[in-house]
From TrEMBL, chain A:
Keyword Transmembrane: yes
Gene Ontology, cellular component aspect: plasma membrane
Chief place of localization: membrane
CDD domains for the chain: TM_PBP1_transp_AraH_like
Stretches for region Disordered: 1-22
Compositionally biased tracts (Polar residues): 1-20
Name the record gives this protein: Ribose transport system permease protein
UniProtKB/TrEMBL annotation, chain B:
Keyword Cell cycle: no
InterPro entries membership: ABC_transp_permease
Transmembrane residue ranges: 12-33, 39-62, 74-101, 113-135, 156-177, 207-227, 239-256, 262-281, 288-307
GO cellular component, one term: plasma membrane
Keywords: Cell membrane, Membrane, Transmembrane, Transmembrane helix
This protein's name: Ribose transport system permease protein
Keyword Transmembrane helix: yes
Molecular-function annotations in GO: transmembrane transporter activity
Membrane topology: Multi-pass membrane protein
CDD domains noted in UniProt: TM_PBP1_transp_AraH_like
Compartments it resides in: Cell membrane
Main location: membrane
TrEMBL record, chain C:
Residues in Periplasmic binding protein domain copies: 46-307
Origin species: Bauldia litoralis
Record-given protein name: ABC-type sugar transport system, substrate-binding protein, contains N-terminal xre family HTH domain
UniProt signal peptide: 1-27
Compartment(s): Cell envelope
Family membership: Belongs to the bacterial solute-binding protein 2 family.
Predominant location category: other
Length: 333, 333, 366
């Protein structure tokens, strides 16, 4: 069955790029990200007086944490060749709203956490199954996001969901001086990275993304890999939603407005290839931190909102183009 | 071998059916959405979502996807307001041409670098949003001499100047895509790119044109809306991507690329317009509209997928998929 | 070609103005009764996912029901183009309301909406006062008196300064350094309140070190706070936040930066929309009780009074702070119909608040 070649959103047939083995060592994109971060930090310190303070570093890590958790959790989906989800904001929002609502009913928080994670995994696995069956992942997640938004909006009446009288603010607390979301970010990054590199399913994920027909011939199930990837992603989304819900004590259907774009940007800047088969959750974490560093530098230097966005977009475009060229050996001597 | 009238109309059966059913359902539950008022409302939808869907469809037909249409509309809106001194037509023209130029640059880069348009346009989406903030100084800007916008506020039966402009664009783009060589090149690189390249079809030119169309149409949409409303704000039109994509896909533009006509887009836009205007007439919230849009989108792409999987191309249901049966003398596929 | 277009534009403009004059602002016959008897009212306001919007819609809906009007509410997510589209769609649908209640998201930008709506029915504008361009198309203003709110903020800041001095706080400048987190840029609410605050503090003005736009919800308050507070840490004594929801977010940012609100800095919020915990426990010195529900109800009343009387009379009606809602006055509305407003300082102030039957928590938080 010949699939149309070259179309960007269509089937998972390997593109010309992936058929070649990467001519550059695999660590080069990571080195690029680290190098960029180091350069960025050096410039930042030189230019901005208040950059290298404990308060500021903490603020950077805080800003990177939620986006980082989501970008890291989404990496398996990208690795498996299922591109990205365009329904990120809505799913995280659903987790936040349902967590706050459940706590508001008086349910013990541990139960609420388990329920929210289970609920999100169910919805995510459903999307994964649909995608595994062959539907386009970008459009499926876009549509799913719209449906989730609509449902939560209608159920919540478009209003603010609160945790009632139960004081809900542990999301803003610190553990031994480290903000809790940063701690969770660290744990999630380590967990997902190990999952991808040390388990059979993890390695299968990367193989399927790199060359699906070959992988399937070797007995790897694209369906299983996809569903597992969506499950991991859903857990990450649930964690992000719960953390924010626990920090603000309230949520609305419009929470997390920029999360989709920010997470995808973090994942791409980190160096994971959109077409699958290359990258790692660790890089996505790095991408999130890099973007947070650059954003912070700009805030401290009084960049306007527009200026910050323009620079962020510019960075994404440049990094993505350079990484893509490198992958295809454009810089080969 | 000229295809009979039934064969020509087949690709439109499903979207037309969806349109008819939706219109019936909405009209039956909304007393004010009937007759001339309803047709006017539906046609009004063409000037914003319709134009965006039209341009987006061009990129989908080319086998790509332009995620930056929302930001492009926002930039154009701001530019149009800033150029109010050029008069109504002048401002809209300047904004549209500026957008088309930006789109052409995007398309050229994507074609030349061979980079995935999903990835590239995520970057430009952020970047252009930043430009919008910079141009508008991060605040809403309004038209001083609001009388110049008066022509847009008039109603001519079931039409307005905005909807007429949109319909004219539909006609122009439709004729261009079907009857010019450059237009057919867009189909070629979308349907089977490697084969097209092998046959000598250039890639960069149709890519540039497709993205110029996408950006230009989105810019026209944003400029018209800004002039009609009398203002532009930097953070607007983020929802246009979902609506535009939904309209294009609902109408039958295939994600596989290489096929579809402006009638497909028009049908899809009409469906979304019915949903949007019909629900709005009841004071329904935007979230309900999104919910219905998401459900419709999922339904249509599922049907398209199932029809393809069940190999219905060889049967009378070929119209459902818009795909031609295997072995027929279908060009470019 | 251009001159043709220009002539067409002029012709259209003339026709439109004539049409507006004839259609929109004509002297109407009053129906004689404030009861609606099933007539329609339409309201364009902000989203209910914001506390203020939610309360306003609740108040308006309740009052419309009491008066026998059928109210349709359109909410926009802080987006003028979204509101523009809603207005255009509503008009296109052929509805025939008795009056329109309109909160333009960006007052100066909504001129075309007001023009279109005024052709349909009398327009009552709420929360944001019309400017000189839109007044020809608006019948009356009903809602918050933003200058008064700003003056109240100024008075509360002065009291905070006295309290801080009494507690032995050392200011960074003779009259105290003031950091301001205001509503999103372009929103008249912020600029009008600012004028009021300056007026009230003109005898001993604060030293304003920075004004940042964009805070009107807990998330935006926290986001802006966590970026701006580190920059000015140790440099400000007083903080004026647009409303209490944003203040709650800012307070979180302050604490994360090691600043104790109520001790290291004194906070005043312009209006109380949001959870009042921080006022009750002293982290926020004082807040302005701006009952959004009353504002919504008052707008419906103003519309009903206009429909009943066919016109306006007088310049200003300032509603007083009353514990229970007064009976609706069947007379015509004035040009400006201001709703009651009062400050609430500390836990006592919150406990003693009662306006039109609502207590502080009902007004501000739910």
């Amino acid at each position: 069955m010949s699939e149309p070649s070259g179309s960007v959103t269509a089937g998972m047939s390997p593109t010309l790029q992936q058929a070649d083995k990467p001519n550059r060592p695999d660590w080069l994109p990571m080195a690029l990200v680290i190098g960029l971060t180091v350069v960025a930090i050096v410039i930042a310190v030189a230019v901005t007086p208040k950059f290298l303070t404990v308060d500021n570093i903490r603020a950077i890590l805080r800003n990177a944490a939620i986006v980082g958790i989501v970008a890291v959790s989404m990496t398996p989906i990208t690795l498996s060749g299922n591109f990205v989800s365009l329904g990120i904001s809505q799913s995280a929002m659903a987790a936040m709203v349902s967590f706050v609502a459940l706590v508001g009913t008086g349910m013990p928080q541990v139960f609420a956490i388990v329920l929210v994670i289970a609920g999100l995994v169910a919805v995510g696995v459903l999307q994964g199954a649909v995608v595994a069956a062959g539907l386009n992942p970008v459009i499926t997640t876009l549509a799913a996001g719209a449906i989730i938004f609509g449902v939560v909006s209608e159920v919540s009446g478009g209003g603010i969901v609160r945790a009632g009288d139960a004081p809900l603010s542990w999301g803003g607390s610190t553990v031994a001086g480290i903000p809790i979301e940063v701690l969770v970010f660290l744990i999630v990054t380590i967990a997902v990275t190990l999952l991808m590199s040390r388990t059979v399913t993890g390695r299968e994920t990367t193989l399927v993304g790199a060359n699906r027909p070959t992988a399937e011939v070797s007995g790897i199930s694209f369906t299983r890999v996809t569903i597992v990837a969506f499950a991991i992603f859903s857990v990450g989304l649930a964690i992000a939603g719960i953390l924010n819900g626990a920090a603000f004590g309230q949520a609305t259907a419009k929470s997390f407005p920029d999360l989709t774009i920010d997470s995808i940007a973090a994942l791409l800047v980190g160096g994971t290839a959109i077409a699958g088969g290359q990258g790692s959750p660790l890089r996505s974490a790095g991408g999130a931190i890099l973007i947070a560093v650059i954003s912070n530098m700009m805030v401290l230097n009084d960049f306007s909102t527009g200026g910050r966005l323009a620079v962020q977009g510019g960075v994404v475009v440049i990094v993505v183009v350079v990484l893509d060229l490198m992958r295809r050996g454009a810089f080969r001597r | 071998m000229k295809p009979g009238i039934l064969t020509t109309l087949r690709p439109y059966f499903l979207p037309a059916l969806v349109l008819a059913v939706t219109w019936l359902v909405i009209a039956s539950i909304t007393p004010t959405f009937r007759g001339a008022a309803s047709i006017f409302s539906v046609l009004e939808g063409f000037s914003l979502v319709g134009l965006v869907a039209l341009g987006l469809a061009a990129t989908i037909i080319a086998g790509e996807f332009d995620l930056s249409v929302g930001s492009m509309a926002a930039v154009a809106a701001v530019i149009a307001v800033l150029c109010e001194g050029a008069g109504l037509v002048g401002a809209v023209l300047i904004a549209t041409l500026a957008g088309a130029a930006l789109g052409a640059i995007q398309g050229t880069l994507i074609g030349r670098l061979g980079i995935n348009s999903l990835v590239f346009t995520i970057g430009t989406l952020i970047f252009l949003r930043g430009i919008t903030y910079i141009l508008s100084d991060s605040a809403p800007i309004m038209i001083d001499a609001y009388e110049i916008t008066d022509p847009l506020l008039e109603r001519y039966g079931i039409f307005s100047l905005s909807s007429l402009t949109a319909l004219v664009m539909f006609a122009i783009v439709g004729l261009f895509l079907t009857y010019t060589r450059w237009g057919r090149e867009i189909f070629a690189i979308g349907g089977a790119r490697n084969e097209a390249i092998a046959a000598g079809v250039p890639v960069v030119r149709p890519m540039a044109i497709a993205f110029a169309l996408s950006a230009g149409c989105a810019s026209l949409a944003g400029a018209l809306a800004a002039m009609r409303g009398g203002s532009a704000a930097p953070q607007n039109y983020e929802d246009l991507l979902l609506s535009g994509a939904a309209a294009a896909l609902l109408g039958g533009i295939s994600l596989y690329g290489g096929r579809g006509t402006v009638f497909n887009v028009a049908l899809g836009v009409a469906v979304l317009s019915v949903v949007g205007a019909g629900l709005a007439a009841r004071g329904s919230t935007a979230s309900l509209v999104q919910l219905v849009t998401g459900v419709l989108l999922l339904t249509v792409i599922t049907i398209e997928f199932l029809a393809g999987r069940l190999r219905l191309e060889d049967t009378v249901f070929a119209g459902l998929t818009g795909r031609r049966a295997r072995g027929s003398a279908g060009a470019g596929s | 070609m251009t001159s043709m277009t220009r002539m067409a534009a002029v012709l259209c403009a003339t026709a439109l103005s004539l049409g507006t004059v004839l259609g929109g602002v004509q002297a109407q016959e009053g129906t004689g009764s404030v009861m609606g008897e099933g007539k329609e009212l339409v309201m364009f306001t902000i989203t209910a996912s914001n506390v203020y919007g939610a309360n306003q819609i609740k108040g308006a809906t309740a009052e419309a029901e009491k008066l026998g009007y059928k109210l349709t509410v359109f909410q926009n997510n802080f987006s003028q183009p979204e509101q523009d589209q809603q207005v255009q769609q509503y008009i296109a649908s052929g509805a025939k309301p008795a009056a329109v209640i309109f909160w333009p998201w960006v007052a100066d930008a909504a001129i075309n909406d007001v023009r279109l709506l005024s052709r349909l029915a009398p327009v009552i504008q709420l929360t944001q006062e019309p400017n000189e361009k839109s007044w020809p198309f608006v019948q009356a203003y009903s809602g918050a008196n933003q200058i008064l709110i700003g003056k109240t903020v100024g008075e509360m800041l002065i009291q905070a300064r006295d309290a801080a001095k009494a507690a032995g706080m050392e200011f960074k400048s003779p009259e105290g350094n003031l950091l301001i987190f205001q509503h999103p840029e372009g929103e008249k609410t912020g600029t009008e309140r600012y004028k009021g605050m300056i007026e009230a503090t003109k005898d001993a003005p604060f030293n304003e070190i920075h004004l940042e736009y964009g805070a009107n919800s807990p998330e935006s308050g926290y986001e802006i706070g966590s970026q701006v507070v580190p920059k000015y840490k140790g440099e400000f004594d007083f903080l004026w936040v647009s409303n209490q929801q944003a203040a709650n977010g800012v307070i979180r940012a302050l604490k994360e930066n090691g600043i104790t609100p109520g001790k290291d800095v004194y906070i005043v919020s312009g209006d109380c929309s949001g959870s009042l915990e921080a006022v009750k426990n002293g982290e926020t010195f004082g807040t302005g009780i701006q009952p959004a529900a009353v504002e919504g109800a008052l707008a419906v009343r103003t519309a009903a009074k206009f429909v009943a009387n066919g016109g306006i009379e007088g310049d200003v009606i300032q509603m007083e702070v009353e514990a229970e809602a007064p009976e609706i006055d069947p007379g015509p509305p004035a040009k400006f119909n201001f709703m009651p407003h009062a400050p609430a300082i500390g836990a006592d102030g919150v406990a003693n608040t009662k306006i039109w039957g609502y207590n502080a928590d009902e007004i501000c938080a739910s």
